[in-house]
Amino acid sequence: MTDPRPTSAFHRANADPAVTDRLIAALDAQAANPGVRRLRAWAHAELAVRPGERALDVGAGTGSETQVLAAAVTPEGGATDGGTGDATGSGTGGAIGGAIGSAIGVEPNPGLRAVAERRAAEAGSPARFVDGDALALPLPDGELDAVWCERVLQHLTDPARAVAEMARVLRPGGRVALLDTDWSTFLIHPAEPDVQSALATVVRDAAARPDAGRSLAGWLVEAGLTVDRLGADVLLHDSHATGGPLVRGLGAAAVERGLITEEQRDRLYADLDAAAGAGAFHLSVTMFAAVAHRPR
Questions:
Q1: Domains identified in the chain, total number
Q2: Strand 102-106 with 128-130, pairing
Q3: Nearest Cα to Cα of residue 186 among 195, 173, 177, 199
Q4: Which residues neighbour 135 within 8 Å (Cβ) at sequence distance 6 or greater?
Q5: Which of 46, 100, 102, 125 could lock 291 by a disulfide, CB 3.0 to 4.6 Å apart?
Q6: CATH code of the domain in which 60 resides
Q7: How far apart are CA 284 and CA 296, in angstroms?
């Protein structure tokens, strides 16, 4: 039987240029979700990156949060040329003792990394981006003041190892913010119970670790870090913008896997379309966050 849980398209080995635009569109749509924006703002406030610090974004994607980190490590959020250092941030732009810190995004997908670099340049951001793997970060021990990692661990078969890598590169007292989705919280309404269950199965099977959200605190503790704050937000999806195409894709996958019939799929679409017209459509999933520090 074919494994229904494919390796993520975000992984370097699957970096097909043909799907890069689709990945970018998905990341941009997620970034616009009010729940994502609220949880990001909360996590950034708790991480409290300061001017002169060295920060890392693991799995930077299009680089939006690397830019936020770069603004925070720069005095008054001003732009700079990013210094002359290498990936460790040890050059002039990464000097923790100076006025300007460094913010580096590690991104293994070359298509996404190119977009991140271009967007940072267009924004005048000092954020820098390097190739790298979350399971083997290209940084020495105890190098960083802050690490950000958002919606990466769900794609990894060994997320605990990735969190251990983040702990390794943190200095004593350094902080980390993890944000990830828990796909077992997926809800759609109206849907027949059997159909709801089938769609939830499709959603869960698409992630290597669908329980990533609820597991963040445990992985941090296992890595020897102290958890300081936990947060969460519900990501509601608009029926016309994201919900519609997403539901069609889930319905098609459920039929292809034999989890529901074509008749059930068609009733689902009709019921959801009617609910959307009446303002009663619901599709949501919960994203969690955990902020921790490395003990001194």
A1: 1
A2: parallel
A3: 199
A4: 156, 158, 161, 162, 165
A5: 46
A6: 3.40.50.150
A7: 39
- For residue 221 the two structure tokens come to 């503790």
Is the residue at 261 inside a domain?
Answer: no
271-291 burial: b if 16+ Cβ within 10 Å, else e: bbeebbeeeebbbebbbbbbb
What digits encode the pLDDT tens for the residues 225-278? 999 999 999 999 988 766 778 899 999 999 999 999 999 999 999 999 999 999
User: In sequence order, which residues have a C-beta less than 8 Å from that of residue 204 and are 6 or more positions away?
Assistant: 183, 184, 186, 210
> Do 211 and 293 meet the contact criterion of CB atoms below 8 Å apart?
no
Does 265 reside within a domain? Answer: no
Q: Identify whether 167 is part of a domain.
A: yes
Q: What is the pLDDT of residues 187-229, one digit of tens each?
A: 999 999 999 999 999 999 999 999 999 999 999 999 999 999 9
Query: 65 is in which domain, residue-wise?
Result: 12-181+209-233+287-293
- Contact by Cβ (8 Å): 194, 260: yes
